[in-house]
Each structure stands twice: as structure tokens, then as C-alpha cells.
Amino acid sequence: MQIKQFIGSLLILLIPISVLAQKNSLLLENKYYTIKSVPIPKDIVLEVGGLAFDDKGNLGVTTRRGDLWSIKNPSSANPEFTRFASGLHEPLGLGFRNGAFYLAQRAELTKIQDRNGDGKGDLYETIYSWPLNGNYHEYSYGPEFLPDGNMLITLNLGWIGRGESGSKWRGWLLQISPDGEMTPIATGLRSPAGFGLNAKGDVFYTENQGDWVGSGRMTHLEKGDFAGNPEGLKWSQEPNSPVKIKFADIVDTMGYTLYEYSKKQAGIKPPSVWFPHTLMGISTSDILVVNNDKFGPFEGQLLVADQGHSKIMRVFQEKINGVYQGACFPFREGFASGILRMEWGPDNSIYVGQTNRGWASTGKSSFALERLVYNGEIPFEMKTIKARKDGFTIEFTEPINRTTAANPESYSISDFTYKYHHVYGSPVTDLQTRTVYKVEVAQDGKSAKLFVEGLRAGYINEIKAEGVKNNQGKNLLHNFAYYTLNEIPGGEEQTDHEHHMAHDAIVPAVNLVSDKRVTEIPSSWFNGPDVTLTLTTTSGMKYVEKELIVKAGQKVKFVLNNPDDMMHNVAIVKPGKVAVIADMANNLGLQGQEKGYIPESDDLLFHSNLLVPGSSDIFYFVAPTEPGAYEYVCTFPAHSATMRGILMVE
Ligand SMILES: [Cu+2]
User: Domains in the chain, ordered, with CATH?
Assistant: First the structure.
């Protein structure tokens, strides 16, 4: 081996695996969606605040330095830049309707028009204005046009070491008509840089991690909604406010999640999709609906940009019990600067406006204007994830290899949540592993039904499909997603328990090997067991049988049936020891599952396996020789309070 080559391979070894993986994923993404840059003249600082095409096909761009540029032929090698307007106060949005540009400056919604046709704005008209207290963080965004011609704007909170609504309507979504009539719509907003309409015309906004905001997220906003940050509630008692909650109604419990709090206080709207901090992005921005079928297989879905990670994520949502929820997926990373805006071009490519001054980003350019172009080849991706009563259904963009897709071990799921408190951000809270115990692959090979034990409403499910391959043996382009489960769907699609029982693909959660779980009948029991005890689980974390009776020293065959839709076990313990054992099981934490929630203790006499829904277990033991009221209990966390009974030894 040549010395140079040797040093070269050493260097490659020194590059962290994660960097290689990232480079690899960038290269793969580039095969399907290519990033092209729009050349910007050297003397223009194009820190993009807003993007909108005018009626002549020129791209309007507002900048944070207060200009509105008009770009002719933006997809060509030599686009032509004209300064259409200037002297604006940090316009962070742009729209175009009926021959005029509309933009939100910090303190007003402004209409700018070119009346004499010289390609420059000559009429600046205030549509509606609002007060400012001068805090640097009082950003204003928009407008987004509604189908009826009214406009939406959002107002950022100021920052004084926490979010502050220092002037009226900071922290609000406002609707403004073209003739300047303002209607407040919703509040609880902290840093609402991105908002827009989905394919059905419903309004969503994205939020950045911050005080009262555990992680980035997206929320469906309707009139009267409160989305979580209490500062904007300072104005909820104004006569035209549709929001009923008062500022004093929201207290910091330090314990609840936003979902839990919303069940106790009417009018709180939990997010439809969480973007877990650092796992998916770090600062969400613009929302863009995929409004055509020329951009790959994702028509009707939403793209959400991330400023800090210089990337675009993808969102699929569904409505369960009238509530939006769904999954976010990685989509395309590697942009030059921090993304603030996305806009469709006439050729169905997406213009991506970027800036990172004051807001650090992965892309190191201080500003950029780029274009994302679809190359026509379908990437192998999870296209949608839908919730069912008993799990999730994943739809793929291509037929999947049946052997890999039907194997429960090709998937892993864990769920967690975030705290709702005045502190900035939240750690991942109450993380648990969920077991995929069965998978059914659809006839057409394009979707897989995952059966998952113990779904928890209000939790974020990390869904990984690392083992799934397509028919050509290829891996997924992106193999993970985060599904926010606000509502668990009702019974229409549930599978009955007999079906579970009959299926041979059920995998146990664990297979506990222990001398307290003897699964073969002991060879010394020549006449078989003296007695068979059967215990059956039922819904509401209970056993059907409250008491079982044996005689001291009897040979027992113990059957545990679990027709319930959660995981359960049974542990037989010495008299009076249930609470101690349940506590020990709880304290096993994340290792609990692999131990079947069976702690090591002399007070625990016998136990079953940890059973997934629709399975059963048989074990053998000799009943204690000392009579007494022994107890049996399910040691799965939080079950022991209700899931217990007496084993009477006579
Ligand atoms: Cu249980």
C-alpha cells in the first residue's frame, strides 16, 4: 500500500460515522430533488424575508434590509434584478393580488403598486397598522391570502429573557381585509414565522422551541384558539377578541404536558404535529402545500422548512375525531443558509429564500436564494402514516419486499412527550418503548399494518422502519418519522382478539428465562399438575379473576391469557408485598421492558412472561407450604393499582 493511500484511509476513519451518514443521505436526496442556486448580483444583500410571483412571472423578494426586489427570469443563468421598493421596515413576508404587492412591515400591512408601468412601485399604501414598543424581537410576518381575498398576518412576541407581548396583538394571528378591517383570530403564538393553508384551506402555523414551547411544532388555528404561550392572552379581554381564556387562567404546573392541560382547560389547541427538537429540526419556518403532482408522489402534503437546520421537512396529516394529527418526515437538507420562505415557481420547482443573520444555521452562507427541482424519479419513502386503534399503517411510495416488511423486527417504535411550562424548551419526557407485535403487508405490497401495544394519546411516536426494503432490495431514503397521536381512532378498523390469537406471527415482547418461570412441566410430576389456575386480563387494567384458591403444596399449572389490547404480566408475591414489588418494577425504567418488568426480589415467588396483546403464557410451580393470602399483580408500570388479586393458599 502506498503511504499516501494509507494516510488517506486513516483520515477517512477519523471522520465521524454520523458525518459520513449525513453526506451519504445528502447525495441520495440529491438524486431525486436537486438544489440549484439563483445567482445574486455581488452588490445585493438578499436576506430573504418574503417571496411572491407577480402577474408577469417576475419573482418579488422582500429583504430584511427593507428592499423589495423584482427578479426577471429567476430560473435562468442571468436573472435581472430591479429594486421595486425600498425603505421598508424589515418586511418578513410578501403576497401579490390584483396588480399589487402586499407585505407586513414591523408595524403595518402595506400595499405597493406600480401605477405608471416603469417596473417600480410608486404607491405605498397603509392597509392597517399596529403599535410597536421597539423590542428587537417584534417581528411581523405575512400576509397569506385566504381564498376570499382577506389576508392573515402573525405578530411575534418581543424578547426580554422570555417572550413578552409588550404591545397590542403581539402573539396573535390577525385577519385583515383589503380595505383595512382587522379581526383578531387566535393567540398563544410565540414565534410564528411560518403559516399557511393546507390543501383543504385550513390554517396552520409553525412554532419554534421556547418558553412554554417544548419543541418545534405545527398547530391548526381556528377562530378563538389558544395555542400555548400565555403572553398574547394579555389582550384576550379586548372587546373584539374571540379568545375566551384569560391570562390568569394559565398557570405553570411544571408537570402537565400541553395535551394534558388542554383536557383540563377548554380553548387550548395542542399541536397537530410536533417536530422533535434536534431529531427533526431546531427552528421551523415556512409552510408550503404540495399543490401539484409534478413534484413527486406527495401531492396534498405539506412541506415545512427549518431555518436552523437549513432543511425542508415533509408532513402528512389526517383528521381523527375532528382533530388534525400526523407525521413529519425528513425530506431535503443541504441548503446554503437558514430557510425562511418557500414559494412555488411557474415550472413547479420551489424557490427557497434564506437568511441567517442573528439566527445561526447549518448552511453557512449569510443569505441565499435557491430552487428545489424534482428530477422525475420516485424516491423509496414512507409516504403516509395513519393511526389505527391498534397501531399504525405505513404506506410506501413503492412496493415493499414482503419478507422484510412483514417482520416486526424491521420496525421500532418509542413514544414520548414534552412538558408545558414557562421554561425554555423541554427535555424528552416519559420515553417508553412500544412493541410492534405483528405486521400485515397489504395485497398490493404498498403498505404495512403495524400492530402496536399500548398506544398513548397525547404522545409523539418515533416510528423507525430500518429493516424494510423495496423489491430491488433498496433501503428507504429516510427510515424514520414522528407521528403525533392526539386521538386514537375508534373501533371501525380494529382487529378482534381471536384474529390475534390465530395469527402465528405474534412475537413475544421478551422471552424471560428465570427459575421463577418454569415453562416445561417438571419431569417429577408423574401424575401431572394437581390443579390448573387460569387468569385472564380485561380492559381498564384489570384481571377478570379477583381471587384464586389452591391448597398448600399443590402442583399448579398457571395459565395467563391476555386478550386485552395492552401488554400485561403476572407476578405472584408474598403476602403484603405487592406495593414493594410494583415500586421496584417501576424503577427499572427503560430497562424494564427487556426484563419483562420483573424485579429481582425474594418476595417475588413466580411470574409469567410479559405478554403482548392477544397472547398467553403457561408456567408451573408448587404452591407455598405455608398457608396465607398471597397476592398476584401485573407489574407493568402504572397497572399494579388496579391489576391485582389474592392467591389464597389454604
Ligand atoms: Cu398490566
Answer: 382-502 (2.60.40.1220), 531-649 (2.60.40.420)
